[in-house]
Amino acid sequence: MTSATIPGLEPGSAPTRHQELLEWVAEVARLTQPDQVVWSDGSDEEWTRLTDELLAAGTITKLDEEKQPNSFAANSDPADVARVESRTFICSKREIDAGPTNNWVDPTEMRATMTELYTGSMRGRTMYVIPFCMGPLGADDPKLGVEITDSAYVVLSMRIMTRVGPAVLETLGTDKFFVKALHSLGAPLQPGDTDVPWPCNTEKYITHFPEDREIWSYGSGYGGNALLGKKCYSLRIASAMAHDEGWLAEHMLILKLISPEEKAYYIAAAFPSACGKTNLAMIQPTIPGWRAETLGDDIAWMRFGDDGRLYAVNPEFGFFGVAPGTNWSSNPNAMETLKQGNTMYTNVAVTDDKDVWWEGLEGSHDHLIDWQGKDWTPESDGPAAHPNSRYCVPMSQCPIMAPEWDDPQGVPISAILFGGRRKTTVPLVTEARDWQHGVFMGATVGSEQTAAAEGTVGAIRRDPMAMLPFLGYNVGDYLQHWIELGKSADESKLPKVFYVNWFRRGADKRFLWPGFGENSRVLKWIVERIEGTAGGVETPVGIVATPEALDLDGLDVDIDDVAEALAVNVDEWREEIPSIEEWFSFVGDKLPTGIADEFAALKQRLA
Ligand code: GTP
Ligand code: MN
Ligand code: MN
């Protein structure tokens, strides 16, 4: 089939006159040879058409209209359930620019390999073109992109996660820059083939060309690998843009905390995947008089404003949250958001009356259809929902969205939190002495591995600023960028930096701190540190809260547990040193002197 005969490619049929975009679409169509090209408009009509198609294909199940209005549950291929870090590549021109933490292949070689894979890869399928915008369309410099995909599931999910529709094409005009994001499932159909419910390929590539600001993804239909506006654009490509342009693209939630005096504080927090960002973003404070509102649960773009403060914007439009563990007590605001409907679930369990269920959700069921589409009873071997099962839901449905969540100006950040999942060593909350010390804390974030990516669950890995899987360039340059941004700013206007750990455990393995809504007590201490009204103790690792300085009113916990959660155990920290040493030598020559200085000072304080 020549390009002229691919329906949807006829001259003048596209809803844009952006020449570069038109040429790229034609070029990809010629390469991938789809049955037709369809421009996505993000309309309700499109939603209905595509969900009908996926229902017929067995990819999704329609959920009960009363309990889960306009919502669907998809089951992925059992081998396509998480981001694939071992198949994620940063193909910068020079290997050193990808750095030691990323897989690198020469871009020319990678383009050749993937061009071969893309050849005919959309045969028998529809090629969708999705113009999208990360962040508000009304921004001075809106961050535009176009994803080409042969997955209807991706089209539906992109409508939830990003700003799509005719307004994006309008903003693109005839010549605005956009990030080219190409995605193919790698599952062409020959005439007469019957399709599978979740097409994908055992061979997977999630590739980024940072200098060209391009993304090529092949072989996976799963969220982070396939919804290219999210991790691929808003973190990996955007981090490279941010490095060049003097801003930050971070794996952070954005939260607004309102004191009883009605004073608002904006907080950004970076925790590795499945370590509590979405939970904290939607926190329901347990302290009387304190309220929280959310602005984002996964990604923050931050730049200095004219007033010298650091402003954050959430580039996303929806939540792509971890389902297991989400319930009416751990995260009531997420539950309320889901109750509004319009949700695409992936790899959750479905009840006999077509509601959803996952481990940790209220209610128990004698029978379910599990995430693999099989019958499940409480006696069954595995979990009913996959540990990395997700909900994809419009952010606007969250009952505690801050009114300013869509403001292109963003919000001024007063505190940055780093954290990870650590059973031992790391106190509940520690304040950095200054910006550089805070960057050191971020640089040494360590976390036990979760199910959000492939790998051994439980092993500790260093995850700088929770960005390890999402850095679009060399980690040493990235840490230097953080240090330099701090130096360029007015110190008194910089956010204060804190390190939190909700996950410390006692000798009997139980969590020492109740977490979730009770984390508001830690947030209150942080606010009081910003205001200079709360006490803390100087320790070798920073300023740590004391049990007395935390508001524990009405909290039903053993005070000894709180003390243990806050303890700085010098012996444990000494044990930490070789692993930091190992991590920094892995970072290599580009480790900033400022970070090396902080490490030397820490070792001295622990000696
Ligand atoms: P990504 O969306 O993958 O980037 O992850 P996330 O950081 O948003 O993770 P999420 O908020 O979904 O956290 C998921 C896991 O952390 C669940 O198992 C929660 O139960 C657990 N969790 C969140 N907050 C707390 C807490 O305060 N204490 C404890 N013990 N567990 C928590
Ligand atoms: Mn994330
Ligand atoms: Mn999340």
TrEMBL record:
<feature type="binding site">
    <location>
        <position position="273"/>
    </location>
    <ligand>
        <name>substrate</name>
    </ligand>
</feature>
<keyword id="KW-0456">Lyase</keyword>
<dbReference type="InterPro" id="IPR008209">
    <property type="entry name" value="PEP_carboxykinase_GTP"/>
</dbReference>
<keyword id="KW-0342">GTP-binding</keyword>
<feature type="binding site">
    <location>
        <position position="298"/>
    </location>
    <ligand>
        <name>Mn(2+)</name>
    </ligand>
</feature>
<feature type="binding site">
    <location>
        <begin position="516"/>
        <end position="519"/>
    </location>
    <ligand>
        <name>GTP</name>
    </ligand>
</feature>
<keyword id="KW-0312">Gluconeogenesis</keyword>
<comment type="pathway">
    <text>Carbohydrate biosynthesis; gluconeogenesis.</text>
</comment>
<feature type="binding site">
    <location>
        <begin position="388"/>
        <end position="390"/>
    </location>
    <ligand>
        <name>substrate</name>
    </ligand>
</feature>
<feature type="domain" description="Phosphoenolpyruvate carboxykinase GTP-utilising N-terminal">
    <location>
        <begin position="23"/>
        <end position="243"/>
    </location>
</feature>
<dbReference type="Pfam" id="PF17297">
    <property type="entry name" value="PEPCK_N"/>
</dbReference>
<dbReference type="InterPro" id="IPR008210">
    <property type="entry name" value="PEP_carboxykinase_N"/>
</dbReference>
<comment type="similarity">
    <text>Belongs to the phosphoenolpyruvate carboxykinase [GTP] family.</text>
</comment>
<dbReference type="InterPro" id="IPR018091">
    <property type="entry name" value="PEP_carboxykin_GTP_CS"/>
</dbReference>
<feature type="binding site">
    <location>
        <begin position="222"/>
        <end position="224"/>
    </location>
    <ligand>
        <name>substrate</name>
    </ligand>
</feature>
<dbReference type="InterPro" id="IPR035078">
    <property type="entry name" value="PEP_carboxykinase_GTP_N"/>
</dbReference>
<dbReference type="InterPro" id="IPR035077">
    <property type="entry name" value="PEP_carboxykinase_GTP_C"/>
</dbReference>
<feature type="domain" description="Phosphoenolpyruvate carboxykinase C-terminal P-loop">
    <location>
        <begin position="247"/>
        <end position="605"/>
    </location>
</feature>
<comment type="subunit">
    <text>Monomer.</text>
</comment>
<keyword id="KW-0479">Metal-binding</keyword>
<dbReference type="InterPro" id="IPR013035">
    <property type="entry name" value="PEP_carboxykinase_C"/>
</dbReference>
<keyword id="KW-0464">Manganese</keyword>
<keyword id="KW-0963">Cytoplasm</keyword>
<feature type="binding site">
    <location>
        <position position="251"/>
    </location>
    <ligand>
        <name>Mn(2+)</name>
    </ligand>
</feature>
<feature type="binding site">
    <location>
        <position position="83"/>
    </location>
    <ligand>
        <name>substrate</name>
    </ligand>
</feature>
<dbReference type="Pfam" id="PF00821">
    <property type="entry name" value="PEPCK_GTP"/>
</dbReference>
<keyword id="KW-0547">Nucleotide-binding</keyword>
<feature type="binding site">
    <location>
        <position position="390"/>
    </location>
    <ligand>
        <name>GTP</name>
    </ligand>
</feature>
<feature type="active site">
    <location>
        <position position="275"/>
    </location>
</feature>
<comment type="function">
    <text>Catalyzes the conversion of oxaloacetate (OAA) to phosphoenolpyruvate (PEP), the rate-limiting step in the metabolic pathway that produces glucose from lactate and other precursors derived from the citric acid cycle.</text>
</comment>
<feature type="binding site">
    <location>
        <position position="231"/>
    </location>
    <ligand>
        <name>Mn(2+)</name>
    </ligand>
</feature>
<keyword id="KW-0210">Decarboxylase</keyword>
<feature type="binding site">
    <location>
        <begin position="274"/>
        <end position="279"/>
    </location>
    <ligand>
        <name>GTP</name>
    </ligand>
</feature>
<protein>
    <recommendedName>
        <fullName>Phosphoenolpyruvate carboxykinase [GTP]</fullName>
        <ecNumber>4.1.1.32</ecNumber>
    </recommendedName>
</protein>
<feature type="binding site">
    <location>
        <position position="421"/>
    </location>
    <ligand>
        <name>GTP</name>
    </ligand>
</feature>
